[in-house]
Amino acid sequence: MKTTLKSLLLLGLAAGFALQLQAQQGPWDGLQQLSGLWKNQGKASFEKWEMAGPTAMLGEGYRQKADGEKQITEYLRILRQPDGSIVYQATVPSQNDSATIDFPMTFFTTNSWTFENPKHDFPQKIEYWFQDDQILRVTVSGGDGNPFVIWFNRVSEKQAQLPKTLHGYELFVSSRNTGTVKRFNAFTGAYLGEFGKEQIGNETQDVAIGPDGMLYVSSLQAAHILKFDPATGTFLENFTSGYELKKPTKISFAPDGYLYVSQWGEDQSSVVRFNAKTGVFDRDCTGPQAGPLGHAWDAGGNLYVACFFSKDVRKFSPDGRYLGVVIPPDQLKGPSNLWFNPAGDLLVADWDSGSIKKFRNEPGGLLFDREFASGFARLEGVAIGPDGFLYACDWYRNIIQKLNASTGSAIGVYLDGGDMQRPNGLVFYKAGR
Asked: 233-241: long-range contacts at Cβ-Cβ below 8 A with a sequence spacing of 24 or more?
C-alpha cells in the first residue's frame, strides 16, 4: 500500500512539474514545433514554416503541379508582439486585394493554438492542433463559409518531391515497316500522326533528340542521318556529311559531343561518328564488327557496342582502341541495345531471348547478375522516360512495354496503337520547348 501511494505521489509530482514547465514555456515556445514542411494528406498541397528570428515565424502555403512547378497560394506569418500577444497573419494573393489579414491568438493549450478575427468574412477562426509531432490538424471555420479540416503530415524536402510524369511530353517511335516516325501524346497515349515517309523510304531504324532539340532519324535505305523539326514533323535536311552511310541503324548523341551511328553495310559494318553540331564526319570508331547496334558509355568515356551477329558486347577506349569482348557470346543470343544504370551496372536488351540481362560492374569486369526482365517477343529500342520508368519496344507484338527501371518488374503495356509496325526505337520530347 505504501509503495502504491509513493508511486502515485511521484507520478502526481511529475505531472505537476510537466504542467508547470509547459506554463513557463508559454504558447510561443510550443508554436516553434511548426517549423518544417507539412503535406496535406492525399493532396499535393503543403505548408512550410521556419523561424525568422526570436519573435517571428514565416510560412507559406503552396501547391505542387504534376510537372513539379510550385504555385504559392498564401503567405503566412506568426508574430510575437512586444506585449507578449501573438498574431497569425495571412496574405492570399487572390483575395482581399492581397491585403494581410490579422488573426490574434485567443486560446492555447500545450498542443493547440486558436486564432480569431470575427470581423473577417471567412475564415474567422483558425485552429492548429498537434496530434503528435508528425501529424497536424488545421481547422478553418466561421462566417458564411463551410468549416473544413485539413490534416497534414510532417515530411522531408525529399519526400515532398512529387513523382515526375510524362505530362507535357510527346513520344516518337520509329515504325520500321511503315517507313515513318509515329507520334504520340506521351501522357495520354493519343496517336498524333506520322511523318517522314518521303525521306525515310522504308525500314526506319532509330530516333534521337539532338543537343539542338531537333529530331534525328536513321533508315536502312538512307545514306545520311535525317533531321526533322519535332514540333511539326517537317523535314529539315540530310544532317550528316563527308561520309556516305550504308544501312545505318542505331544512333546516339554521346557525352563527348559526337553523333555515333552503327551501320550494317556489307563493307561498312562499323560504328562511325560525326560532329553533333555540324554533322561533319569525324572517323570510324570501331572498324569492322559483326552487326553493331546499340551504344553505351561508362564513366571513363569508354564505348560499349552491342554486336548482334557475334552475340557479344565489345569495348573501345575513347581514342578508338579495341579493348576486347566484355560480355561473351555464351551469355547472349542477340544483343540489340544496352545502357548503364546509376550504379554502373550494364543492362543489355537481348533480341532473340526477348529479355533484358543485368551485368554487375566488378573490379574484374562485367559479371552476369540476373535476368532483369523477360517476356518480350522481340526486344530492341529502349528508353528511360522523363518519369523514371523504362520503356521498351516489343518489336514483334507492335507494342511499347513499361517497366520499373530499378527492378525490371513489368508494369504493363504502355502503348498499343497508331498502326505501329515493327517499332524498334523511341524517344521522348518535351513539347513546346
From this structure: 233/181, 233/183, 233/193, 233/195, 233/196, 234/195, 235/195, 235/196, 235/198, 235/199, 239/274, 239/279, 240/274, 240/279, 240/281, 241/274, 241/278, 241/279, 241/280, 241/281
Q: pLDDT band for 372, please (50, 70, 90 cuts).
A: very high
As a whole number of angstroms, the distance between CA 180 and CA 420 comes to 9
* CA distances for 102 relative to 76, 98, 150, 178, angstroms: 10, 13, 20, 66
Cβ(389)–Cβ(405) below 8 Å = yes
User: Do you find a cis peptide bond into 123, omega within 30 degrees of 0?
Assistant: yes
What pLDDT, in 10s, does the model give residues 25-72? 589 999 999 999 999 987 889 999 999 989 999 999 999 876 667 889
Helix (H, G, I), strand (E, B) or coil at 312: strand
Q: How far apart are CA 181 and CA 228, in angstroms?
A: 10
Q: Give me the mean pLDDT over the 139-149 stretch.
A: 88
Grade residue 1 by pLDDT with cuts at 50, 70 and 90: very low
Domains and CATH numbers, the chain: 28-160 (2.40.128.20), 169-430 (2.130.10.10)
pTM of the predicted model, to two decimals? 0.71
Over residues 389-408, the pLDDT tens digits come to 999 999 999 999 999 999 99
What is the distance between the alpha carbons of residues 128 and 125, in angstroms, rounded to a whole number?
10
Amino acid at 51: M
The answer to whether 333 touches 352, Cβ cutoff 8 Å, is yes
- Report the alpha-carbon distance of residue 105 to residue 85 in Å, rounded: 7
User: If you write DSSP's letter for every residue of 64-83 in order, what string do you get?
Assistant: E-TTS-EEEEEEEEEEE-TT
Instruction: Locate 5 and state its grid cell.
Output: 501511494
For residue 14, what is its C-alpha cell?
511529475
Would you give the distance in Å from CA 39 to the centre of its chain?
Answer: 20
Residue type, 173: V
